[in-house]
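Protocol step 4 of 6: structure prediction from sequence.
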Amino acid sequence: MSLSNIEKSVIAHSELKPNEEVCGLILIEPSGEVVVKRIDNKHPNKKNGFFIPQSFLIQHLIDQTILGIYHTHHKSSERPSIIDIKMSEEICLPYLIYSLKTKKFFLYFPESFEPSDLIGRFYVKGFNECSCIFKDYFKKVLGINITKWNKNYWLPEEDDKANNLLLKILNKHLKRVNTIKKHDVIVFEIKKNSRLHIGIYLGDDFFIHQPKHQLSQKQILDERWQSKIKYIYRYR
């Protein structure tokens, strides 16, 4: 399993201080480069919590470059605590949590998160994936907050596990249909037995999606893309 630069950087930071929580920011430059910035934990009890001064957040929020905040759990699992959830909701930013105990990641998206423009996003594992376009389209265009449909947005590395999770969510909340109309969710199978990909149909033969390692984009649903459609889902 190959680790992303975000994972490598957070793990390296966590191993420097394995008996306390470490923290930092995940930023994206105008060029699309993702930067993991370490920040000194200012919490009075670093073994049981973390604190980032508001000045650091304000500085980067003005530039709109923060993808999320990361911190570590050295005594518990990767799941967010009640305090983690409360703080993430208050500052409207995702929390990426790494557990030294389980060696796993958890990406929590708060319901208060306000998504950026849907088109022109750089691909970033976890933060800007095709599933995020799905979530954000529903909120920005349809006014429906579906954030809680999924808990952990740091998706499984294994294609079959990621596919099972996606289909479980779609089958639970949407209706599978045989026709297509505006706002429908399209599930593509790019290659046989590979990771499924999703987009949203915009009508007039166009759809929006987040290709891996490309900018999110509006694209024509031509014969090539039509041949890759596996399922179509509609909001009930």
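Step 5 (inspection) to follow. The first strand starts at residue 23 and ends at 28.
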